[in-house]
Amino acid sequence: MPGFELFGDKERAQVQEVLDSGVLMRYGFDGMRNGHWKAIELEKALAKRMKADHVHLVSSGTAALTVALASAGINAGDEVILPTFTFVASFEAVLSVGAVPVLVDVDDTLTLDPSAVEKAITKRTKVIMPVHMCGSMADLGALKALCHKYKLTLLEDACQAIGGSYEGKPLGSYGDLGCLSFDYVKTITCGEGGAVLTNDPDYYKNADHYSDHGHDHIGKDRGAENHPFLGYNYRISELHAAVGLAQIKRLDNFLDIQKKNYSILRKSLQNLSDITFRRVPEGGIENYSFLSFYMPTQELAQRAHKALGDAGVDSCFYWYDNNWHYHRKWDHLKDLKGLGYFSNQIYDGLPNYHNSDFTKSDHWVGRTISCLIKLGWTKNEVKQRAENMSRILREVL
Ligand SMILES: *Cc1c(COP(=O)(O)O)cnc(C)c1O
C-alpha cells in the first residue's frame, strides 16, 4: 500500500516548484507564486478521479474526519456509529467535535455490520461512519438505506481504501461525505494530508471555512475576510499538496501493481480449503492494498501469524491484538483519558465499553490475518512470498 515505496523525481520536481516560488501557503500571496496553486490543483485532480463534485484538502486524514463531521453540523451529544475495527482517528475525530462515538460490531466484510448498526440507532444518532479498512468496503447499499430510513448522514472513512469502488463509485464518493488520508503509509502520500469529498455545496463551503479559522475566503485580502462561524487551522501546506500532486498521477499505476501482487498471493492460498477470504460486498471492488483471510479458529490464526513472522514473511498483521486498530486495546477511549475536558454529555452518552459485548467482532477479527501488499516487491519476491505463505499456512493447518 505505501506510496512512499515509489517515490522520486516527480515528487521532487513538484516540491522544487513550490520552494522556488517561495509560497508555502495555500491561500493568498497571489503575486509571488508564479501561478503555482498546488492545493487547488490537487483538489481538482482528486475531484476528477474520485468523481466528487467537491474536494477540500486538509492537514491529515484525522483532520478530514473532524472537518467533515463539523461541516455537517455534528455537535455535542450527537451520536456517531462506527466500527470496532478501525483506526483510533475515527473516534478521535468524533470526540473532537464533542460528539459520542458508538462502537458497533463488524461482520465478515471486516467493516460495519448493517444489522448491528440498525440496532444501535437512537434518537441522538446523526451519522453512520463505515470505515473501509484494509482496502475494502462495508455493505454501503444497506447502510445508505438505513440513512434514508432514519435521516442520517453517511460519512465514509475511506482513508485506507483510495482507488476501490462500490457500484461504480470511487470509495469516499458514495456517501454524503467521504474522507481520504495521505499520511506516509497510505496508498498515495503527501507526507501528511487528507481530503474531504462531498457533492453537497454547503458541506464543502463549511469545510473550507472551518479548516481555516472560519475565514469566508471572499475577496483577496485575508485580513478583510469575515468569519461566519468559528473554525480551526487544519490547512494543508503547498509543500504537502505538491507531493500529492505527483502521487495522484501515479495512483492507477500503484493500484495495478497492488492488484497484480495481491492476485498472486491469493492464488497461492486458494487451494487451502480451511482458509476463507474476507467478503467483499456485491458491487464492490477493493483497492487490493491488503490480502485479508480467515483461519478456522482464533488459536490457528495466532499460530499462523507467529509462524509467518518467524519465517520472515513480514507485514502480516493480526489485528485482534493491535493497539491502534481494534477495540480491545482502547482503554484510553473506554476510560475517557483526555488531557482536558470532556463534556458531561460525552461522559453520560458514551456506552460502557468495558461491559460491551463485541463477540461478533471478535469472532471475525480474532481469526483474521491481513497481509500488506507492497508496491516495491520484485517479481521474484512476490513468487517467493506466495510459496512461503502457502507452505507455512499448510503446516499450521
Ligand atoms: C490513516 C487513517 C486515518 C487517519 O489519517 P491520518 O492522515 O493518519 O490522520 C483515519 N482512518 C483510517 C481508517 C486510517 O487508516
From TrEMBL:
Keywords linked to the UniProt accession: Aminotransferase, Pyridoxal phosphate, Transferase
Database matches in SUPFAM superfamilies: PLP-dependent transferases
CDD domains xrefs: AHBA_syn
An example Gene Ontology molecular-function term: pyridoxal phosphate binding
Pfam families with a match to the protein in the record: DegT_DnrJ_EryC1
Source organism, top-level taxon: Bacteria
Sites bearing N6-(pyridoxal phosphate)lysine, chain numbering: 186
UniProt record, GO biological process: polysaccharide biosynthetic process
Active site residues of this protein: 186
InterPro entries named in the record: DegT/StrS_aminotransferase (IPR000653), PyrdxlP-dep_Trfase (IPR015424), PyrdxlP-dep_Trfase_major (IPR015421), PyrdxlP-dep_Trfase_small (IPR015422)
Family: Belongs to the DegT/DnrJ/EryC1 family.
Protein's name according to its UniProt entry: DegT/DnrJ/EryC1/StrS family aminotransferase
